[in-house]
Structure formats: structure tokens, C-alpha cells
Amino acid sequence: MSGTTSRATPSPTPKLINASLSITVPTVPPSTVLIPSTCNAAPGYTDISSGAQVVVKNEHGSVILTSTLGDGAYMGSDLGHCKFSFALDDLPLAKIYQIHVGNSFRGVIDYTPDQIEANPNFAIG
User: Fold this and answer.
1) N- to C-terminal Cα distance for the chain?
2) Mean pLDDT per 10-residue run, the chain (125 residues)?
3) Looking at the record's lineage, which domain of life comes first (predicted)?
């Protein structure tokens, strides 16, 4: 008697996105001739700082990834703004991404997968 063998169909591997985003906030320009290699956010934006948590939720409001901001950097000759970069590695595919950075009074910014893959920079202030 011959037996039958059934094989489970492997489920497709979910698509993951890797992106590098950044947030730009006002800063107090340095008062020295030598420009420091890092910068800090101006008063009123100090919750946006190196090590601050970035929370990414999907369209259902579920947290799907967290990250942290890197060190702030001046944007070339623009000494009035400070740019903080962050990585979103192995971000699960979603219809909408809701990104929150900073204190509880700051809202979320919505992005589509195509927008996330374009590595956007968003600005506050």
C-alpha cells in the first residue's frame, strides 16, 4: 500500500522595509567661530534630542517598531536648524505608518510605504 505525502506550502516571507529618515528642528546657532560637530534643539524642541525614542505604528495603531534618534548635525551652512537621523530596520509592511517622535504633545506623521522608502526628512518648527 502506498502512502501519500503532503507538504505544507511555505508561507511567503513578509516584506520588510529598511529606511533612513530624519527630523529637523530649530537650533540656537553657535556663538563661536568653530562650529561644533553636533547640535542641540532650541528651547521648546528639547524633547527632540539624541537618543529620543521614535515609535512607529501601523494603520491599526499597533506599535510595530521603535528606534532612537542619532546625534544632531547642522545642515551644511544652515546653522539655524539641527537634523537628527534615525533608522527603521526590518519595518514590517503596512498600509500606513504613523511616526511619533518627542513628547506626548507632538502628534504623529503619516507615511505610505512608498514615502518611507524615499527616506524622507520632516521638519518641526
Assistant:
1) 76
2) 54 78 88 71 92 96 96 84 93 95 91 93 87
3) Bacteria
pLDDT of residue 90: 93
- What is the Cα Rg of the chain in Å? 20
> Could you tell me if residue 8 is inside a domain?
no
| CB-CB contact of 95 with 58 (8 Å) | yes
- Does some domain include residue 1? no
Cell 537618543 locates to 51
C-alpha neighbours within 13 Å on the C-beta side of residue 2: 2
- The confidence score (pLDDT) of residue 50 equals 94
Which residue, 82, 60, 81, 80, is CA-closest to 71? 82
The residue behind cell 505525502 is 5
Question: What CATH number does the domain containing 37 carry?
Answer: 2.60.40
**Whole domain around residue 89: which residue ranges?**
16-123
Nearest to 102 by CA among 24, 17, 20, 19: 24
Cell triple for residue 89? 530596520
